[in-house]
Amino acid sequence: MYALLGHPVGHSMSPAMHNAAFEKLGIDARYVAIDVTEDELSDAVLMLRDMGYRGWNLTMPLKSAIVPYLDELSTAARLCGAVNTVVVADDGRLIGYTTDGQGYTDSLRDFLDRPQSDVRRQTRKRLSTRTSDLRTGTVLGCGGAARSIIVQLAIDGVEKIHVCKRKNASFDDAVEFCWKVSEETGAQIDVVDMGAERDYRWAVDDCDILVNATNVGMEGGDMSSPVPQDFLREDMIVSDIIYHPEVTQLLSDAAEVGATTHSGKWMLLYQGAAAFKLWIDRDMPIEYIKEYVFGN
User: Fold this and answer.
1) Is the pLDDT of residue 196 over 60?
2) Which one of 61, 116, 248, 295 counts the least CB within 10 Å of its CB?
């Protein structure tokens, strides 16, 4: 048994994706979604261990809250202080990983490998086969998923990363996090106040790829765009990790100006594939899942 923990989780495509992969590969396993709030997490971990679950995923708001319950963290999980995948080792230890960043960069490579428009072929030349060929990335937000993406971009060798967020109570914590990642990876990382229009415009204008890792644009919440359309350019990749809706207002605005757009559903697929590999030590049948679950 495997599970997804979070609140809410009813909209998640993860159960369909993992269960289709288990069935395709003939693996006797099942993946379920369990609605768990932060206050219920301790009891949920005890329940999963008692029932013999071999691993689980975490989504909002549990990616950082799970850390105190774990025995070991991967390098990326330690750097970002967030976990989206737990593996139960044979000796019972709980090992935390973050596959969001890896899933994001894997999905981006796959996306740019497909036949593309002239604009996408140009961005493909810069990206080559590695995210390290990106010079500058701008990430909106500094929550669990955003931190995983920031860490993975830095580990992959992206030279400069602008992190844009509101100057609220967590701003100083974001600055400290980015400083630590910069010290360990060598990437140049700065934090920009999204409320300072001139600085925010500069951070967007300075990047090869813009990644929205906030929840602005998500179905059921604020479905506006976190970026004014006149900040966007034709010669950039605009990426959104939201997958409900598949085309957010940000992606719609970006498409209107001719930018290359990248949907969050592919990050969902590839972060799931990375978790699947950690649990099963087998590759998820990606092309089958694309067709069977995502219809692409």
Assistant:
1) yes
2) 295
Cα 261 off chain centre by? 16
Residue 120 token pair: 């996408």
* 280 residue type, one letter: I
Instruction: Give the sign of the dihedral formed by CA 277, CA 59, CA 141, CA 168.
Output: negative
- Percent of the chain past pLDDT 70, that is, above it, reads 93
Q: Are 147 and 81 in contact (CB under 8 A)?
A: yes
Max CA-CA distance within the chain? 55
> What integer is the mean pLDDT of 262-288?
94
- What whole-number distance in Å separates Cα of residue 132 and Cα of residue 240? 20
For residue 224, what is the DSSP state?
S
- Output the DSSP codes for 93-149: -EEEE--HHHHHHHHHHHHHHS---HHHHHHHHHHTTSGGG--EEEEE--SHHHHHH
Strand-pair category, 94-97 with 72-73: parallel
The single residue listed with the structure tokens 């329940």 is 47
How far is Cα 264 from Cα 175, in angstroms, rounded to an integer?
A: 26
Give dist(CA 243, CA 256) in Å, integer. 19
Which is nearest to 293 in space by CA: 243, 228, 218, 257? 243
167 in catalytic set: no
Distance CA 230, CA 192 (A): 18
Q: pLDDT tens digit string along 111-154? A: 877 665 444 444 544 444 344 456 899 999 998 889 999 999 99
Q: Which of 63, 160, 165, 265 is catalytic?
A: 63
Contact 98, 76 (CB under 8 A): yes
Per the CB < 8 A criterion, the answer to whether 137 and 153 are in contact is: yes
What pairs with residue 33 in β-bridges? Answer: 4
Confidence grade of residue 12 (pLDDT, cut at 50, 70, 90):
confident
The residue type of 95 is I
Name every residue whose Cβ is closer than 8 Å to that of residue 118 and which is 6 or more positions away in sequence.
Answer: none
Residue pair 167/142 in contact (Cβ under 8 Å)? The answer is no
